[in-house]
Amino acid sequence: GVEPQDLEESRRGFAVAEDLIRNGHQDLLILDEILAAVAYDLAEEGDVERLLDVYDQNRGCELVLSGHQVWDSLVQRVDLVTEMRKVKHYYAKGTPARKGIEF
Questions:
Q1: How far apart are CA 20 and CA 42, in angstroms?
Q2: pTM for this entry
Q3: Backbone conformation region of residue 67, classed left if phi is above 0, alpha if psi is from -120 to 50, else beta
Q4: How far apart are CA 33 and CA 10, in angstroms?
Q5: Consecutive sets of 10 residues in the chain, 103 residues long: mean pLDDT of each?
């Protein structure tokens, strides 16, 4: 189950993302697996929607959200939705996650 420290870390991540949207100087901000945080009850749809509200007022970079589960209001709101599926993955051969790539 979700532990209190997991929820705290999720809230911290959203705060960092909001700060980067408001004050960062990056050209591209990728919030990898932010939608998975919603799917696994670490955040709520409203948390992502509020982050998009901040982005709508501070479009200083491209924003990419990833994850494996979307909801209708999110799909209607964003500019681009891409669905990917795994055909082949090196995990199947036992290759471990690599620092800087998977984590």
A1: 20
A2: 0.84
A3: left
A4: 11
A5: 95 98 97 96 97 97 95 96 91 89 81
